[in-house]
Design brief:
By secondary structure, the chain is an alpha/beta fold. The protein has a single domain (about 10-145, about 210-300), classed as Rossmann fold (3-Layer(aba) Sandwich), CATH 3.40.50. The protein is built from 13 helices and ten strands. β7 and β8 form a beta hairpin. α1 (about 50-55) crosses α13 and α2 crosses α3 (about 105-120).
């Protein structure tokens, strides 16, 4: 396992009441420069730990476990981008944050876009980390039912939700060979997945609701919340892309040139490529997170 160079930011968790229950929220740092960070479709707030450590205690990073995941596993649907956006507003209210730069990774980017639409005064600008802009799907994929399409795109991330594991170590062993992670495995990635697993041996299960995941996938890929938001939002947006995809493959989710049409729609749009990263390692390694942290500092300083 690669051991990342670390300068850990202070860290605590707190709970926020939302319709259906309480969300678990991570908070790093103690500064007066806030960042609201939203994780991907089957991830949890610890995916933001590398970035928070890069920013340090001069910043405050607020990152919820979205409903149906990890510490918020017991909070049910209905989910979807609009529901998550409203939940994030509740988190900001509880944390005393009137306005912030909002970063969303993968599906979290779509939540950020819808948040900017539904509560524009709460969003200073958006950092869309390999997400947030509709994918250009081939017709054969676009016509698939939601479950089949989701499984095609994210593979093991969905398949694991129906599996049981004899121990947390067995769950880690499931993830280690993943082609996007195997060569980059580190203590951040391991902590993220150890937090993900719950229950008692030998019948441990991921704390991720398949029902909520499929609701979110339908909202992200099949319903108009995102496209309606993108048609009208006027916030600055920085798209931060990885050159490789969810399985460390080329082409990535967002190839060069795939945002030309969106640059015309946004009054202020920037496209940044983080070299030598994939969809996971752009945020979950020190190498990727250090580059993202530079962008965050620039956006907060604007």
């Amino acid at each position: 396992m690669t051991v990342e160079a670390r300068n850990p930011a202070s860290y605590e968790t707190f709970d926020v009441g939302v319709p259906g229950g309480k969300l678990r929220v991570g908070r790093w740092g103690k500064g007066d420069r806030p960042l609201v960070a939203i994780h991907g479709i089957t991830a949890n707030h610890l995916s933001m730990n590398p970035l928070a450590d890069q920013l340090g205690d001069d910043y405050t990073v607020i990152a919820p476990d979205l409903r149906g995941r990890a510490g918020s596993f017991e909070v049910p649907g209905p989910a979807g981008m609009a529901r998550h956006a409203d939940d994030v507003v509740a988190v900001m209210d509880e944390a005393g944050i009137e306005q912030a730069v909002v970063l969303g990774h993968s599906m979290g980017g779509f939540v950020a876009v819808v948040l900017a639409h539904r509560a524009p005064e709460r969003v200073k600008s958006m950092i869309l980390l390999d997400g947030g802009i509709p994918l250009e799907l081939p017709p054969a994929l676009a016509e698939m039912p939601v479950e089949e399409l989701t499984r095609t795109i994210i593979g093991p991330s969905l398949d694991r939700l129906r599996m049981t594991f004899e121990s947390a170590d067995a769950y880690i062993d499931f993830w280690r060979p993943h082609p996007a992670l195997a060569d980059e495995w580190n203590e951040y990635i391991e902590a993220h997945y150890r937090y993900d697993i719950g229950g008692e041996p030998p019948n441990m299960r991921p704390r991720v609701s398949e029902e909520v995941i499929l609701q979110d996938a339908g909202s992200e890929l099949k319903q108009p919340d995102v496209t309606d938001a993108l048609a009208v939002v006027k916030h600055r947006a920085v798209l931060v892309r990885a050159p490789r995809g969810l399985f460390n493959q080329v082409p990535p989710l967002y190839p060069d040139g795939s945002f030309d049409v969106w640059k015309e729609k946004f009054p202020d749009f920037e496209d940044v490529l983080v070299d030598d990263t994939n969809h996971f390692t752009i945020g979950m390694t020190t190498r990727g997170a250090s580059k993202v942290a530079e962008i965050v500092r620039e956006e907060i300083a604007r």
